[in-house]
Amino acid sequence: RHWERAPLLVRRGDPRYYAGLFSTADLDAALRSGEVCFGTHLDVTSYADGVRETHNPSGRALPAVVWDFYQNGCSLRLLCPQAFSPTVWQFLSILQEHFGSMAGANTYLTPPGTQGFAPHYDDIEAFVLQLEGKKHWRVYSPRTDAEVLPQFSSANLTQAELGEPILETVLETGDLLYFPRGFIHQGNCLPDAHSLHITVSTYQRNSWGNLLEKLLPAALQMALEEDVEYRQGLPLGCLQYMGVTNSDTVDARRTAFVDKVQSLIKKLVDYAPIDAAMDQRAKSFLHDCLPPVLTQSEKAQSVYGFPARWKGGGPCDVDILITTDTEIRLLRHGIIRLCNEEAGVMLYYTTENSRVYHKEECKFLEIDPEYTDSIEYLLSSYPNHVSVSTLPCETLEDKIALATLLFEKGILTTKKPLI
């Protein structure tokens, strides 16, 4: 059962296991790009004598300032390594597809003999991958039932609040440590080595309760619209016999009132738009997602490799010439979601997302309802290519118009480059 999960330690025995994923050289290159800002992309922290502090100045995180902090015993947390590292971007894009939930990451560089963060627990499933050096970890069970699979991360905890760890280990380069939501953890560097690790997170706000938060209000709204029983008035005098002060009173009216409420709650199941609620969760997931990482062939066969350019005093090769014979397919199966909403049929997609979490608004197209069958056809045909002529649109013009629109948004690729 999910709530019985426990931390897991994986010894690789190979310090090269995560080679190429991320390194201190990659962190240094990110700083040298001039694009890293304190607070937005990088946190400078310390934890000493039971006190956790953040030392972020304002402005850009330039190497001279950042490495001076590190040299004086501060830890460095890069909040979105995927924005600066194509390998981390690709790694997370694979994981988000596997989990069906946002996969995020932070990297942590800690000087020898220091600790950057106070003990705490998180609201995510965490995978710690040791990239360089080594780090001493202690992991503790949730202290109460309320901390099992928590909805929110904890505040900083003190050593006195922890008890005994259930797992204590030193992660060596190449090792992995997993701990579920709600497990308190802390890591500190040994005196003889620095530590660089990346924490990969997933399953944030992805529980049954989070689904029901969306589902139950929608079910109640439908019930109010369709069932007069939900619109009937409350019994006269119910304020006199209901409420906490009357909870121990033996009264037939109380029994009837509670039975009525329970009956209405049970009937809500009949009005629950479960699939529509899941579509809304998928919509949120697509907003969370990183954009897909393209291979060279995918670039060549998509709008990202289209040869439009400036040449000889003007633009050339601008027209996207899709015909009914052009063979197309979705770039990825999981990059789109059709949702029926009050405003119309919306097609949400990830191809124009930022590599920085929620930097931009959710991307969508309002789709003519007549195009719905064609979108579903493309989804069911993936990963095979189909000719534009086979799209179930009413006219040839509609088939070409839809294919062109989706190609321009990076949603479709062609079997052969459009050159």
UniProtKB/TrEMBL annotation:
User: What Gene Ontology cellular component terms go with this record?
Assistant: nucleolus
Q: Assign the protein's first listed, main location to one coarse class.
A: nucleus
Q: Which residues, if any, are the signal sequence?
A: none
The UniProt entry, under InterPro entries, shows: JmjC_dom (IPR003347), NO66-like (IPR039994), WHD_RIOX1 (IPR049043)
Highest taxon above the source species: Eukaryota
Enumerate the catalysed reactions: L-histidyl-[protein] + 2-oxoglutarate + O2 = (3S)-3-hydroxy-L-histidyl-[protein] + succinate + CO2; N(6),N(6)-dimethyl-L-lysyl(36)-[histone H3] + 2 2-oxoglutarate + 2 O2 = L-lysyl(36)-[histone H3] + 2 formaldehyde + 2 succinate + 2 CO2; N(6)-methyl-L-lysyl-[protein] + 2-oxoglutarate + O2 = L-lysyl-[protein] + formaldehyde + succinate + CO2
Domain JmjC per the UniProt entry, residue ranges: 74-219
Which compartment or compartments is the protein found in?
Answer: Nucleus
Enzyme group, top EC level?
oxidoreductase
Cofactor binding note: Binds 1 Fe(2+) ion per subunit.
One function term, GO molecular function aspect: histone H3K36me/H3K36me2 demethylase activity
Question: What's in the keyword line of the UniProt record?
Answer: Chromatin regulator, Dioxygenase, Iron, Metal-binding, Nucleus, Oxidoreductase, Repressor, Transcription, Transcription regulation
Q: Name one Pfam family in it.
A: JmjC_2
PANTHER family membership = MINA53 MYC INDUCED NUCLEAR ANTIGEN, RIBOSOMAL OXYGENASE 1
Summarizing the function annotation, the protein's role is:
Oxygenase that can act as both a histone lysine demethylase and a ribosomal histidine hydroxylase.
Stated name of the protein: Bifunctional lysine-specific demethylase and histidyl-hydroxylase
